[in-house]
Design goal:
about 160 residues; alpha+beta; seven-stranded antiparallel sheet; about 35% helix
């Protein structure tokens, strides 16, 4: 089995705890990560199930939460047949009130040499989707904060 590592980063003007709240609201995953939906728990030992695909064509990604630091970090172990390895999301406060989001994966590629060859083509696409997803995630709490402020302002 071959292991690969991949990560993506983004910054948000929103505070880390607000970004983390959106990040770990698993049903909202589809709002920011293309072609993916998720559901699951919020504590060490809880299960997560993600679905990546278009319509009925795709795969299930089962995970177990292995670490949970509220407002800052969640780590998982991928336990599925296709996706195996570890991952984490880390949301760190930045000076001025914003936050930096990092998503990192260490995956065991399936299918031996064929999986390694496939990763040469799929890796850049996965990297691009992770980056796009984190940028979209970063904007959600920013937009929600702007909506709250707009709702409070006089008409």
């Amino acid at each position: 089995m071959s292991a690969i590592a991949i990560h993506a980063d983004a910054e948000s003007a929103a505070p880390a705890d607000q970004v983390f709240a959106v990040l770990t609201d698993w049903p909202r995953h589809a709002e920011w990560m293309p072609f993916t939906r998720a559901e699951g728990g919020h504590e060490v030992g809880a299960e997560l199930v993600g679905w990546t695909g278009i319509g009925p064509v795709g795969f299930s990604d089962t995970m177990v939460i292995t670490g949970w630091r509220p407002g800052r970090r969640v780590t998982v172990r991928h336990t599925g047949r296709l996706v195996r390895g570890e991952a984490f999301f880390d949301v760190a406060p930045l000076p001025g009130g914003g936050s930096r989001i990092r998503w990192a994966e260490r995956l065991d590629l399936p299918f031996g040499p064929l999986g390694r060859a496939g990763w040469l083509a799929a890796g850049p696409v996965v990297q691009g989707l992770m980056t796009l997803g984190l940028r979209r995630l970063a904007r959600i709490p920013e937009a929600e904060a702007a909506d709250r402020v707009a709702g409070m302002s006089p008409a």
